[in-house]
Structure formats: structure tokens, C-alpha cells
Design a protein that fits this description.
2 helices; mainly beta; 169 residues; 8% helix
């Protein structure tokens, strides 16, 4: 199963855990809009494994570009209601940006005397659709970039709450 998606969202001045406060988070005047694709090559029961590639424009206080790639695991179609299915997923990979973005990312880069251009990408997601056969779905994702406790030269990175639409084909 392949799919493509579009999304938009807003960056936060929060760590990963506090970024999950979708309503009360400390949002920056920075936004992200992008596209991506999944290719799931392995299906084991209700779990699908594959890879993701994506690209996004980050804008607001300044403009930067982001590209990422990684492995994705998804639990397929957990039935919530007669008409609603959810598929949680997790993406882990690497993210590259053209420059660190004004706000939390640039501040953390300066504190660490690090380089925020290449960081780990970790993105938990919830995808909702009307039936397992539905071609379109909507999703929420925490778009997280991090140096993973100084593994890549700095501690933090950036976080954004994003919402999108996905098409399966």
C-alpha cells in the first residue's frame, strides 16, 4: 500500500512531551506546510512496515526548507466506532533543514553551540478514516526534530503540531 499526504501546522516553543498540549501549547509565530509519501512493503497481520519521505516549507519569523526520510511502522485500522477507524503510526529517521529556524530551534542550537541542520526525526501519528477501504483519511502528527540528548551535537530541536489529509493508492 502506498499513500501520499499533505499537511500544515504550527511550531511550538515546547519540548516533545509538552507539545502534545494541542490547545494550550506555547505556539511560535512559525508554521510548516509540506508533502510526503509512504511505501509499506511489509504487512504482518495488523502491522505494516515501510518507509517515509517528506519535504516542507517552514515559514513565519523566517523561511527554511526541510526534507526527511525514515522507517515507519503502523498498526492498521483499529475500530473505534461503526464508522471510525484509527491507525497509529511512528516514523523514525533523519531530518535535514536548509538553516535552523528562528525561535526555539535557533535558541537551542546557540545554547548547545551545535548545528540543528541534521537531526533525528521522530513522529508519532494518529490517522482517522471512515472504513478500512476508505481511500482518504485525516491525521494528526507531532512533527519532532531532535539531537537525541546530544547524540547529534545538541539536545533539542523543534516540534510542530500538524494536521493533514492522506490519499491511499
Amino acid at each position: 500500500e502506498d499513500n501520499a499526504f499533505v499537511f500544515t501546522g504550527r511550531l511550538l516553543d515546547e519540548d516533545m512531551g509538552d507539545s502534545l498540549k494541542i490547545i494550550s501549547g506555547d505556539y511560535e509565530d512559525n508554521f510548516i506546510t509540506g508533502i510526503g509519501a509512504h511505501d509499506f512493503a511489509i504487512h504482518t497481520g495488523i502491522v505494516s512496515l515501510g518507509y517515509e519521505l517528506g519535504a516542507a516549507a517552514r515559514y513565519g519569523q523566517d523561511s527554511t526548507f526541510e526534507a526527511w526520510g525514515g522507517l515507519v511502522g503502523r498498526i492498521d485500522d483499529i475500530r473505534l466506532l461503526d464508522w471510525l477507524y484509527v491507525s497509529p503510526a511512528l516514523v523514525f529517521g533523519l531530518s535535514y533543514v536548509s538553516d535552523s529556524h528562528e525561535g526555539r530551534e535557533k535558541r537551542l542550537e546557540a545554547q548547545a553551540e551545535g548545528d540543528a541542520r541534521m537531526l533525528f526525526y521522530l513522529s508519532p501519528e494518529l490517522d482517522f478514516r471512515r472504513s478500512p477501504d476508505a481511500r482518504y483519511s485525516v491525521f494528526y502528527r507531532l512533527h519532532h526534530r531532535s539531537g537525541a540528548w546530544n547524540t547529534l551535537g545538541m539536545h533539542g530541536g523543534s516540534n510542530a503540531n500538524i494536521f493533514g489529509v492522506r490519499m491511499r493508492f
